[in-house]
Every structure is written in structure tokens, then in C-alpha cells.
Request: fold
Amino acid sequence: MRLAEQPRELLDRTQPVSVLFRGSPVPAFAGDSIGSALYGAGQRVFSRSFKYHRPRGLLCCSGHCANCMMTVDGVPNVRVCVEPVRNGVRVEPQNVRGSLENDLMAVTDKVGGPFTPVGFYYRTMIRPRRLWPLYEKFLRNAAGLGAVDKHAGRTRRFDTENRQVDTLVIGGGTAGLAAAREAASRGEHVVLVDEGPEPVAGQPCEVLAPARAIGIYEGNLVPVDAGPTLVRFRAGRIVVATGALEQPLLFPGNDLVGVMLPGGVRRLVDLWSLRPGKRAVVIAADEGSLGIVDELARGGTEVARVVDLRSERLGRIVARGRRGHLVRVELDGERIDCDLLVASGGRQPAYSLLAQVGARVEYDANRGIFVPTDLPEGIEAVGAVTGDVGDAAVPAATYNGAGTKGKCFACICEDVTDKDVKRAIAEGFDSIELAKRYTTVTMGPCQGKLCHLPSIRLYARETEAPEAEIGTTTARPPWTPVSLGVLAGRPHEPAKRTSMHHRHKDLGAKVMWTGAWRRPHSYGDPPAEAKAVHDSLGVIDVSTLGKLIVRGPDAAAFLERLYPNRYGDMKADRIRYGVLGTDGGRIMDDGTIARLDEDTFYVTTTSTGADTVIEWFEWWNAVWHLDVDVTNVTGALAAVNVAGPNARELMRRLTDLDVSNEALSYLDARRTHVAGAPTLILRIGFVGELGYELHFPSPFGVHVLDAILEQGADLGVRPFGLEPQRILRLEKQHILVGQDTDSESNALSASMPWIVKWDKDDFVGKWSLEQVRERGIYERLVGFELADAIPGVPLEGGQVVIGGRPGGRITSARWSPELGRVIGMAWVPPALARDGAEFAIKMNGGVEKARVRLSPFFDPEGGHLRS
Amino acid sequence: MTNLDFLSLGAARAAVARSSLHRRLEDAGAEFAERDGWLVAVRVPGEEDHVPAIRDVTHLHRVREGAAGAVIEFRAPGREPVVVERRWNGSLDELLDVSAGTAALQIEGPGATQVLARMTELDLSELPVVGQVAHTRAWVIRDGEESYRLVFGQEFGHYLWEVAVDAAEPLGGGPGGTP
Reply:
């Protein structure tokens, strides 16, 4: 029933709104919570409990317990008691079969008890094992907390924001406000966060509300859940003012609809102007809670009986209900009819955040509460959380006696009764951490806010050990349930794109990931793209190659030490292929090295190896301290490779430089302008045809590519992607480091013994390679063809079979449109590394014959490359 | 010293330069004009309402890097070059111009600090600094009270622009031109 305007009400009665509950409109005002709106319309059952499906009503009205959880606009597990109304919001109950008033699953309450005691799932529904899927389905349907809308995940937006402040105050009550005001007056940058629903009085500083601190992490990091934003605070000083939490009493019927905590009743009356019941009984252990009598009077509720546990001893409390609603309270036999029981067993400091960050917790036996102490540096506590809760009586562990019927709940969220706790102790789970995990007390949505202290008290009595000895369980974040979306924030997945990327997409490229790069796999027809390189002209974007400028008087000496190759004798404007090795003589990367002049070299690396190679160069430079400077220009330069019989004619059209075969031969480097852009031309041939690799500043990427496509149009130019490139390079048996080689491959086993110049001074890996040379190699990388024309291409990574056992593996395999057959590369025993030798490979579910080819499949003499 | 002009944007004869943010601005409907050999987005429709504004300032920046450290300059009257990294005490004259390898964007206007706070954990009261911005490495430089510039590898241009505009939109921001 809605009361006349209350002095501190949050309602704006000039703004009526409508809530859609179970499809029907429920009237409310702006300032209502969904829970207060439903309560005002007469709704008393808000949910059905987790295991027994018992009806549950409003209890705390502060978003701590689980009693009011409903699904709001498709989002499950919303505590409607503090969720602000919005016009037209759709609210549905959850975890019921039938209705809130008539849940068919409530049969578990009547029948289930004996079959579902604590830990029953460790004993029942295990055998026969093949029926587990059935048991699981049954259990999942019988218990639970709401259902996730599988499609909603992509429609809600969550942001993450990072803030650095001098002081962060958590909690906007009296003590928190005072601390914030004090810090602000000292000129500190202060922010105060409060979980609501009461508004924070005054504005001592910047206030974030409603906002919940999730935990305190190392480095004074406090993530705060502020609705759709996660605000990550780094604070010089954290002041915890989280107050103290009212604790329920344990007695039969303590979960009935109509049993409430004083704070819950206070909010109903003060904030939302609602009458909490017709006739009430009050049982409280402290002065503050007893003050609820005033609110009840203002709310027009008749107060039938007040019990101050500080002065009056009670032995037995029983709450009786009809269909789950409170109708009567019995106090040591005295029967009082009522529909509201305000029961509180004192206030427990909300120390969890302090415990997370390292504070100790001590039991104060006089007041029956746990109090934080030994706060670490940079963390302060003020107000009720320090234990300053005033004079209070210590309630009994339970108020039921032998023979009293009715479930007495120790943990309302998880439906754990006092009998369950006793049984757990009897089964041997008598330490608080073990017992918690076995009974699941404190593991529900309230995370111990309403049940940790009462359950410890119960343990103390049952095990006859003092509370101080039992202690508390470890406090861990999140202190309050938080949605995964808030923790995930925005998906920031870095992707690298070349300066020509969008032109590729304009041309119909199918884009794939290679490492963090987005690259064209092909432009829709890999075989045709590969064929175009052989027949006319192809162009591929190779901007992703790693590129290093190595310069200085010791540049040549530096490279001599790093590579097994020889570089000191290179002439200017010439290029050599290089294979970079590890200390262990293993192949790490490959690429080209161009000498620009006496002191300057231009080194390229594989795309995916770029970062590793650059680090490797810088590391060795720091070790050797040679007079050389290494500059990473990978991103600064774009690169394209134009290849095919018409490549020279294209180059003639794009540059003034003499590009005849005599003036610019295979493995020459030239610096000039191409299409008006300053360019380094490398005449190399990864794809086996006459080709030029053009390196120029990235911002000219689109300009140069467009010029190539325009000038090459009548030359049959065709862009090609990574897939056709793989076919072409395989025709030449050009290795791909990491594909054809692994961490054990060395230059000798990979069939490149000519790379290693044994007469050089020491280079990285030299000693290891000498050992390998002496010891001999265990495997050889060879090319192969299929002996017979059969359909299918062998799997890369597939097995080579020798004598019925695995004897090697296939590293690359493709069908070549130019050659009209399947080609590949594989590791085989050295004895088989002869032209024409046959071996078996696993393929098509059986075994096929392959034949070794030691020289390139296409143009073995390299005539095309050198033309 | 050899001729490393093939690294230099200034050595172009008749080639027009585009920043790696170009296509994003094109998609936003920008008007382009040529400035110093660059195609610059001078105006974006709706930019008057985009506060803070996200602008492409790649064409206005210069980065020189080498063993001795790194220096970033922005071409604007009265702006001093910002030395963002100092490795060892070598001469800064020997640095290579690697501007072609970096792109730059500006977040400018009321709310810029909040937008940037949604992209990085870096302490924005201690700039300039190099560190992680949206999981990539970037230099963050302060331009004014609510104005920042990010300088980063140009290959991340498309990505960081998307992150910045996405962070700015719920706060009333959006793309702006660089007149």
C-alpha cells in the first residue's frame, strides 16, 4: 500500500511510469525500484529458492540477498529491489515452473528433503554412469538462477575506463562522506563510490553512484562496476567505509515471505513510501535496529511485540506460514498473529574488501562480530566497518529446540538448513573452509553477506569450538556478483594492415589472418592467379616483410657474425639470400640482404618472424657493442612484388631507370623512382618468374599499386594473394621457414649446405653446425611428386611411412596448375634423398607412393628468373 | 652515408601520399584536399557536433629514430619537438626519419581525457609517455588540457582509429577533419 509522501522519499510522483510484469502493466513512479513498484502493487512472492523452490519475498532491499532476483529486459539475476524503474521495462520471474505463486517444482520442498540433503550430488545420481546426461538435464532444470539470453550478448555495450586518483572512498554513508570531505579540503583529487539506492548526501567531491567496488587488487587497483562502465581506479589512498551488514536470525521459518531485515523495512517506508505490513513483530539485538519501530509507526503498521535481545532472553522462535507467507510468530510458546517479522541478529562489519587486500580479521567475543585489523599501507577504514557498531547483544546460534518442525535456514541463497550444517560436521567437514565447499554456505549470490557470521556461530556451537578458533573463510573478489560483459569491456583485438589493404578489398580479396596481419589469401581464384604469374604478370603486396637498415663501419662485420653466410665480400647494389641461425645452429628465419654501400645493408625477414629477428639483432648488438646501428623500417616501407614475363615491360613504363637485363640483372639492387615514388628495387625471385620487388614509403602504397594496375592492364596484370604465392614458391622448392622447417632444422638437413661458409670466423651457431657436420644429419628436406595421378592433395603434416612406421613428414603440398600435378616437400631419412627414390605417404585413408625430386619442379635452371 | 632517400617522403616526384587512416575517413564521407603531397581529410560531415573530435594528423607529424633515441615533432607554429625516448647519450642528429612508419591521430575537445581513459591505463598526468594503448604500443603526447596526440605504427591506423571513434561515440565524439 502506497503511503502519503514521506520526507526522504525518492519518488517523483509527477512522473508516473509503467512496469510490464509478466506481460501486464504495473503502475509506478520515477524513483521507484522495480521491486518497490511490484510490492506497491501487492506482489509479495519475488522468487523461488534455489533448491527447494520455496517462495521468497523482499528481505534486505539493498541488493545483497537473492530473494528478489528476476529477469529484466532479458537480463537474468537482476536484484529488482534496487533496480530503478524505466518506463516499459519487461520483468519476468525466473526459476519457476508454473508461476511464482504456484511453482510446480516446489514438490522438491515437500519430497526432496530426505533425497536432497547437503552434498547429495556426491552420493546420488552417479550410477549408472551412462545415465549422467539424464541426471544432469534433470538437475539443471530443477535448480538454477535464471537463463541467459543467447542472443543478448552482442546487443549490450560495456566500456572500461581507467582513472588515477589521490583518494578513493568506498561507501557514501556518514563516515565515508566525512572522509571524502576531509580529503577534498586538503586539495586531494577524491572520488567517492556508493552502491545506493539511497542518494549520497551533499557533494563533497566527485561521486559515482550507484557503483559497486568489485575488489581491491595489488597496486591499489579498485575496479568499480558502474552499470555499463567498469571504472578501474588506481588510488594513492583507499578509504573503506562499507559499513556493517544486518544479520538474520536462525529459526524455523526464517525464510518465509514477510520475514525482513530492519534495513529492508526502513527503505520500503522511507525511500518508496510503502507500508511494509499490517501487523508486525520486532526482534533485534542492537539500538539501531530497534529504531525500526518508528518507521513502522509512520508506515501505519501495528507493532504487536518488540523483543530487545539485549534485555530479553529468547529460547525458541518459530515463524509459521500459510503457503509460504508469514501468519504467526511463536516466541517461547507465546503466539502472535502477524504478517511482518522484523528480525536482526546484530550488524557484522562488511570487511571483505579489507580482507582481500591483506587485512586480518579478529573475533570480538563481546559483540559477537569479526572485526578487521592490521590494515596494509595505503588502506584505511572508517565508520561501522571498523567494528564501531554500537552496543549489541550476541544472538544465539539458532532459536529452535529439539523437536521443532520447519526448515531453519543458515544460508537462504543456497537453501542450506541448520540440519545440513550439522550433517556436514557429522560427516567430518568440520573446518570452515571444507565445510563451506561441501555445504555451499556463503557461495550464493550474497557471498556471505547475510550468512557467514550466522553459520560460523552455528559451527561454533556444534563443534564446541570458539568462533575465534574457527575463523572466517578467505575473502576473494568479486565482492558482489558482476556480469561477464562488464569485465570484458570492448573487444580490442589489434590487427595490422598494410597501406594497400583497402585496395585489395576493393579488388575482391578474401582476407585472412597471418599472425596479427590481415592479408589477402587470394582474390577468388588461386590457381588462375598463380597461372597469371607464369603467363603474363602478377602483383602481390609483401609490405608485411620485416625490414632492417643496418649501418655503420662495423655493419658488414656484424652481419658476418650473425649469419652463416658471407657478406663481407658483397659488392654494393647486390643482393644475397640469407638464412639466420640460432646459437644451436637451427634455422630461425630467412630473407634477403642487399648491400647499399660500404657501410649500409638492407635486410629483409619473413613477415611473421620480423619482431623476433629485430629483437635478435638488437640483442646481439648490445652484446658485441660493434659500431653499427640497426633501425627497424618494417612499417615505414611498403613493398610489392611484380612477377611474370611482362614484368620488365611494366617496369619500363613506371620508371626512367634502365631495366634491361644487362643494366639491372638478377640479384641487383637499384634506388630510383617508380611511379614517382622513391623506391629501392630488389631484383629477386621468390615466385620463380622474372620479378622485381619494390620497396617504397608506406604512404605511397595505394598510389604505386594503382599505377601498376593501370600500366599493367594491357599486360594482363593480376593481383595475387598468399595462396597462389604458396603454389608458385613450392614449384621452385623455396622453403617457408616455420612451414618446411621447425625448431630442429638446420641448414645442412634442410638441403642448403652451401649457405654455411665454414672458413669464416666465428658466427652464431658455428660450433653447433660443426658438430652436426661431424655427426651427420638424421633427416633431409626434399621435394616430391606423387608417383601416380590420383585425386587429392596430401595433408600438410601428413606422415611419411618407412617400413610400416612413421619415418618423416610432409611439410607442404599443393596441386600446381602450371605443372598439372601434385607437388610437395617432406622430411625423409637421408638415405632416401636421391632423385627418383620412392617412399610411401599416408593419404586418402591408405598409403600412396611418392617420388623424390631434388631440384625445383619448375624451371630448374632458373632461366626465367634470370631472363 | 648512403642515399636512404627511398625511405623519405620528401623525395617523391609525382606520388601522392595517403595516411593509413585514409579509408576510414573516406568511409565517414570526408572531403579531401592535397597538402604538401598528402591527401588530407579537411572536413568530415557532422564534425561540428563531434565533441571530442578524432582527427588524422599523420601528415603533420615527423618521427626520427635511431640508437640515441626518438624525437617526435608536430608541424604547428610554436611547437617544440618532443623528445619521447632517450636511449644512450649519442647525438640526436644521427636519427633516421621514419615518419613513413608511423601514423598519428588527435583526440581534441571536452571529453578527450575520458575517451583516452577508455583506451589506455597509462597515467595521463605523466605525459609524454610510450606504452600500451588498446593493446598496441603508442606514444601519447599532451597538446592541451583536453587534447592529446597518439603516435603509433602506421599498420595499426585502421584499428586505432576504430577504437578511438568507438570510444568517443557514446560520449558525443566522432571524426573530424584537419583543415
About this structure: Residues 610-624 of chain A form the longest helix (15 residues). DSSP finds 21 helices and 46 strands in chain A.
